[in-house]
Amino acid sequence: MRKTLVLLACLLALAFSASAQNQINFASLPLVSAPTPMPSGYFGLNWNNMFYVDPAEWSEAGPGYKLGPILNQDVAFVGESGCRLPPGGGPCFGSITVNSGGSGIHSISFQPVSATVAGGFGPTNITVIAYNNGNYVGSAFYDLGSQMQTLNFPSSWGSITELTVETAAGGALVFYDLQLYWVVG
Description:
By secondary structure, this protein is mainly beta. It has a single domain, classed as Jelly Rolls. The protein has one helix at 2-19, and strands spanning 21-24, 36-37, 45-48, 50-53, 75-78, 92-98, 108-119, 124-132, 135-144, 149-152, 162-167, 173-184.
């Protein structure tokens, strides 16, 4: 009987933690035909130097922007056209941070799980850096093609407050979705 109760408790814990995972996509944003800054607070996050666009309507969208399973759905991406064209053709940086607009009673952070992404204009590489309250937690390097792929973030990062992405010079990172766990403590 005791083993059954322990097993049931473990199964319930797994079920509750699985239901806490959030998949963030960009389907609820207005369809726009030109890159538009991601709205602050979207899904409770701040999106710095991150943009969104309907790739079917944007004439400058590269092949990596147009891979989504749903026609007429916005995608998010790091940087803007100045990041890929000279003289501003250097690396682009974007970051996703917790929205600290609350009362400060609880500290809020997130644990990134994965992201479905593509190189916007062709193959590129990116560096993803995790911070917790301004302190470096870890980084990961990924090679991207212009085909959609899933990036799995290191579970060793644990709970963080900022995820920064750096694209290679001339590259663009397109997000189709982002999966994370909210952590309140």
